[in-house]
Design goal:
Structural class of chain B: mainly beta
Oligomer: heterodimer
Distance between the termini of chain A: 70 Å
Strand content of chain B: over 45%
Radius of gyration of chain B: 22 Å
Number of helices of chain A: 2
Order of helices and strands of chain A: EEEEHHEEEE
Helix content of chain A: under 10%
Largest sheet of chain B: none
Order of helices and strands of chain B: EEEEE
Number of strands of chain A: 8
Radius of gyration of chain A: 23 Å
Largest sheet of chain A: 3 strands, parallel
Strand content of chain A: over 45%
Helix content of chain B: under 10%
Chain lengths: 140, 65
């Protein structure tokens, strides 16, 4: 377990109108944050009772493996001698100042944070479809 | 490749945002790594006209877009 050494955040004021659907507001540090969103927006002519339920498993979007992101390895904190890529930091001013933050909406597994964090790994999968009932044109 | 970051004075007056949504993040502070994936699909064939709905079988037999 590595501890993140970061700057201290000073926020004068924070005005939030709405925090919903697993949205998070945090004042302070955190180690890991792994939000996941799955949304299936179905606009249907028939209701669920007559047309059947809709399931995430039926759509590729929700099963597709995530593309690999090798750049992540480059930015592992600390310098390793055997590592081809290294990241080092010098902090001249230990503070971050923000006068005020105004956010209207915070929703669907998102986060607003004043503080330092270890790692963030977020995944959002959403799909929007419309379904109409079948009609045979010109037939009785 | 060696990356060296120097943090000088950071002072922001005002941040105004309409929405933070779908596994996203607004952070005032330092962090090690951020990876945010977003997959959104509204295909042209998303208008499905048929006698059966794609979500009829839970075991995923009916393959959809």
């Amino acid at each position: 377990m590595t501890r993140t050494t970061g700057r201290t955040a000073y926020v004068g004021s924070m005005i939030l109108i709405s925090v919903s659907l697993s949205g998070i507001i945090q004042f302070g540090d955190s180690m890991e944050f792994e939000p996941e969103t799955k949304a299936l927006a179905v606009k249907r002519e028939l209701d669920h009772q007559s047309a059947g339920e809709a399931y995430f498993e039926d759509y590729k979007v929700f099963r597709k493996p995530l593309p690999s992101f090798p750049a992540m390895a480059f930015f592992d904190s600390g310098t390793k001698e055997d590592n081809l890529f290294s990241l080092s930091k010098t902090t001249c001013c230990p503070d971050i100042h923000v006068g005020s933050i105004h956010v209207v909406d915070t929703s669907t597994s998102s986060m607003i944070k004043a503080g330092n964090g270890g790692s963030v790994f977020g995944v959002s999968r959403s799909m929007e479809i419309r379904q109409f009932a079948y009609r045979r044109m010109g037939m009785r | 490749m060696q990356v060296h970051i120097v943090n000088h004075v950071l002072s922001v007056g005002n941040i105004s945002i309409i929405g933070v949504a779908a596994s996203s993040l607004l952070q005032v502070g330092d962090t090690d790594s951020i990876s945010l994936y977003s997959i959104f699909d509204t295909p042209p064939e998303s208008v499905i006209i048929g006698p059966l709905t794609p979500g009829a079988a839970k075991d995923g037999q009916a393959e959809k877009p």
